[in-house]
TrEMBL record:
Residues 1-25 form the signal peptide. It comes from the Eukaryota. This is Leucine-rich repeat-containing N-terminal plant-type domain-containing protein. It comes from Stylosanthes scabra. Residues 30-64 form the Leucine-rich repeat-containing N-terminal plant-type domain. Keywords: Leucine-rich repeat, Repeat, Signal.
Length: 341
């Protein structure tokens, strides 16, 4: 009789656990679940977010799009909203910025994503990775992004962003990568871009914008692996971007109005790609180009260069460097161009 009574007492508890695993295993906080459902609604309830519903743990909705932290208190640490088929033009949902524990935010390849980057983005004080690219997001890059001191990666390429470069971005203390190419950014490059606070910055791309004016002499202090300023309306002494001791591996300045004597430039030994075409660069190519052992791409065409092309290294007979790399100059000569007279 005692055994039967014990069984009758335990059975309901076992059944409760068996039928309600979500009660025990739910990692998603009610606040964050409510926020995510609001984001879904603000995006027009796209079909690709059909797994987002109130009855299940939001940390299990879609592990490609949502990642939760592994330790208590659990929170949504990554939100990836790429390639959503939005039903119509939609602004960035401001509800996103109520997920204050976000570490990474991805919003990309959504042509129907429009409007500005909301000022509320500064609420994400723990954000390290911000990707908003290949959208129709417009307006300026918020100067207030510099308030998010944890940012290491910013990708804002391929949008409709306009206005000046925020002068405060170089104050970000741990930034490593900034992509802002293929927008409509305008005005000069600020003086502050020659002195980034972060010692870890390796990439800065500002190509295919409407930047103009003389580049500041302060950019002599810029030392990155990848720098792309191509296809703007920049002018001035681009030689400040080079230096024998710089770690630069890939530098692209094509399609501007830079004017300097290339014969006086000292190239860092790590350079693998060098694109200077369509500028106003003059002088004679320096012998130092033959010492670049990692060089795989070179283009100095459509400039005002003269004199013999240095012989040796990878400047002749290397498959990616041919006569088109040197064509349309004032009086360059020698292999791979016709012989000097």
């Amino acid at each position: 009789m005692a055994i039967t009574n014990i069984s009758m007492f335990i059975l309901p508890i076992v059944l409760l656990i068996w039928v309600s695993p979500a009660v025990v295993s739910d990692k998603c906080s009610p606040h964050e679940k409510k926020t995510l459902l609001q984001i879904k609604q603000e995006l027009g309830n796209p079909t690709m977010l059909s797994s987002w519903n109130e009855s299940t743990d939001c940390c299990t909705w879609d592990t490609v799009r949502i990642e939760c932290s592994n330790q208590k208190p659990y929170h949504v640490s990554q939100l990836d909203l790429h390639e959503l088929n939005l039903p119509g033009p939609t602004n960035i949902p401001t509800s996103i910025f109520n997920l204050v524990d976000l570490d990474q935010l991805f919003l990309f390849e959504m042509p129907n994503l429009t409007g500005p980057i909301p000022s509320q983005i500064t609420k994400l004080k723990k954000l390290t990775v911000l990707y908003i690219f290949s959208t129709n997001v417009s307006g300026p890059i918020p100067d207030s992004l510099a308030q998010i001191k944890t940012l290491t990666n910013i990708n804002l390429a391929g949008n409709n962003l306009s206005g000046p470069l925020p002068p405060s971005l170089p104050t970000l203390p741990v930034i490593r990568v900034i992509f802002a190419d293929q927008n409509s950014l305008s005005g000069p490059i600020p003086e502050s871009y020659g002195s980034f606070a972060s010692k870890d910055l390796i990439t800065l791309t500002l190509s295919h914008n409407k930047l103009s004016g003389k580049i500041p002499a302060s950019l002599k202090g810029l030392d990155l692996y990848f720098l792309d300023l191509s296809w703007n309306k920049l002018e001035g002494d681009g030689s400040v971007l080079f230096g024998a001791e710089k770690k630069t591996g890939d530098i692209r300045l094509a399609g501007n109005m830079f004017s300097f004597d290339i014969g006086k430039v000292e190239f860092g030994r790590n350079i693998s790609r060098l694109n200077l075409k369509h500028n106003r660069i003059y002088g004679q190519l320096p012998q130092g180009l033959t010492k670049l052992q990692h060089l795989t791409r070179l283009n100095v065409s459509y400039n005002q260069l003269c004199g013999p092309i240095p012989q040796g290294g990878r400047l002749q007979g290397y498959f990616a460097i041919d006569d088109s790399s040197f064509s349309h100059n004032k009086c360059l000569c020698g292999p791979p161009l016709p012989a000097c007279k």
